[in-house]
């Protein structure tokens, strides 16, 4: 029986999603608790492997469970959700739990991922946004931020914005299809970069945001985005926005 | 020279506002930093003495500063604000700093205080609201919450909701004038109790919220608010909403 969970988490206390021995990760913690609740080892497939400190509102995971290992031979997903939330909330919260088609795979079935990057652009910070928003005191030019989104749309090579995976032995393609990229002005200095792509490579949203913010603050020329993209070198975009402003908002499935 | 500051803070790491020897308080921390920046001891007068764990968005403090103690004999309030925020933000943030009339007193000049109490009323909690919102999974009847506000309006005796100050040697009046009290439905299960009064006594908003939530959840009869008020005994309203849902929103001056 295949299960699909929608999970929200505050990434602050975690070394990212992917389970790693000896460190506290969202995936490792979640798999441990699921295994205890379902009385069997659980292996998670995840839609988006968020980095250390990155948040999620609509992360999706899938896994298989053998009902015969449970008393009565049945999986009660509502009870499973309550038990997991009882153990992990409010830091990690299972927002939805349902039976999925046996062919469903949280990673491979996903059509697109939506990320949100939040910036507080005013002189004084806000104690209640400090965990989820990058405070940028220098005034940002919203028109420049918006213009910088144009070269991102479509199937592009994002090598300038992506870190090559450490264990990569052969060349890795950094071509990604960006479906939508826009800055939203929420008022009171709160700005949000919403970006949707078929998939993202490592550090892509944070490097894009860091580069755009450098342009919006006048530290990089407007229109330089196309030049940075053409460079196809990670060194061309050294401005990396901090992890705590980023949130995996939603995963799109057929 | 009298100075007036508007201050926001996350109350989580503090034992309330009022300075106390040996514990970390907002007022103690703020006075220390102001004293260092202004090169003289600073004594704060505060509009609302928030309890341990209670937040503030628009707390107001006033204090006197002797410009002659400073280089050039002048107080640069913009620079003072930046220095204080450099030391304390983002946990404590000075949102505004201005010269006040010598007769201004943050406490005595205040006409009213506005508090907000936030409740997340849905089954699953939210990792991003956990520091500022009380999670109440049991469904609340908004009509009952709203009806319970009616007996609060006007000049009333709030003895049932207020803790007598520890050091009180003579009887203390718990009569307060409530100007406005209402529940706002913000959608997605987010409810907010907005209350304005000339002043509040100790634990008043948390006890009112706790009692109303008990009614809204069906644990106390609707309409019992008037009975609880008439009892004039702290024992009549034992439900105390947690501190982290409460925020001193605004202080009203002439």
Detailed description of the structure:
- 2 copies of one chain form a homodimer.
- With 254 residues, the first copy, chain A, is of the alpha+beta class.
- Chain A contains 5 helices and 10 strands, in the order βαββαβββαβββααβ.
- In chain A, strands 1, 2, 3, 4, 5, 6, 7, 8, 9 and 10 form a 10-stranded mixed β-sheet that branches.
- In chain A, helix 1 packs across helix 2.
- Chain A starts with a strand and ends with a strand.
- The mean pLDDT of chain A is 95.
- At the A-B interface, strand 4 of A face strand 4 of B.
Q: Strands, helices and their partners?
A:
The structure is a homodimer of 254-residue chains.
Chain A: E1 2-9, H1 26-38, E2 45-46, E3 55-64, H2 77-88, E4 92-100, E5 112-120, E6 134-135, H3 142-147, E7 154-157, E8 175-187, E9 190-197, H4 204-216, H5 224-231, E10 246-252
Parallel strand pairs in A: 3-10, 5-6
Antiparallel strand pairs in A: 1-3, 1-4, 2-3, 5-9, 5-10, 7-8, 8-9
Number of helices of chain A: 5
3D shape of chain A = globular
Determine the CATH topology of the largest domain in chain A: Alpha-Beta Plaits
Q: Give a count of the beta strands of chain A, DSSP E runs of length 2 or more.
A: 10
- C-alpha end-to-end distance of chain A: 20 Å
Oligomer: homodimer
Radius of gyration of chain A: 20 Å
User: Can you identify the CATH superfamily of the largest domain in chain A?
Assistant: Pseudouridine synthase I, catalytic domain, C-terminal subdomain
* Low-confidence segments of chain A: none
Give the biggest beta sheet of chain A. Answer: 10 strands, mixed
């Amino acid at each position: 029986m295949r299960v699909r969970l929608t999970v929200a988490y505050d990434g602050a206390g975690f070394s990212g999603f992917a389970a790693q021995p000896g460190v506290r990760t969202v995936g490792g913690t979640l798999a441990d608790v699921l295994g205890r609740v379902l009385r069997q080892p659980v292996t998670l497939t995840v839609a988006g492997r968020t980095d250390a400190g990155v948040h999620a509102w609509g992360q999706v995971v899938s896994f298989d469970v053998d009902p015969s290992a449970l008393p009565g031979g049945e999986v009660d997903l509502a009870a499973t959700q309550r038990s997991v939330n009882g153990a992990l909330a409010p830091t990690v919260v299972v927002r939805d739990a349902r039976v999925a088609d046996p062919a469903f795979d949280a990673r491979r079935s996903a059509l697109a991922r939506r990320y949100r990057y939040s910036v507080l652009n005013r002189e004084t910070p806000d104690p209640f946004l400090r965990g989820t928003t990058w405070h940028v005191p220098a005034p940002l030019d919203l028109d420049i931020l918006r213009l910088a989104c144009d070269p991102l749309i479509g199937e592009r090579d994002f090598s300038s914005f992506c870190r090559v995976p450490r264990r990569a032995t052969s060349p890795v393609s950094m071509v990604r299809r960006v479906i939508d990229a826009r800055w939203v002005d929420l008022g009171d200095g709160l700005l949000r970069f919403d970006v949707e792509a078929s998939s993202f490579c490592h550090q892509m949203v944070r490097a894009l945001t860091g580069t755009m913010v450098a342009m919006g603050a006048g530290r990089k020329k407007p229109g330089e985005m196309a030049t940075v993209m053409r460079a196809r070198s990670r060194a061309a975009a050294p401005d990396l926005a901090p992890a705590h402003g980023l949130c995996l908002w939603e995963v799109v499935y057929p």
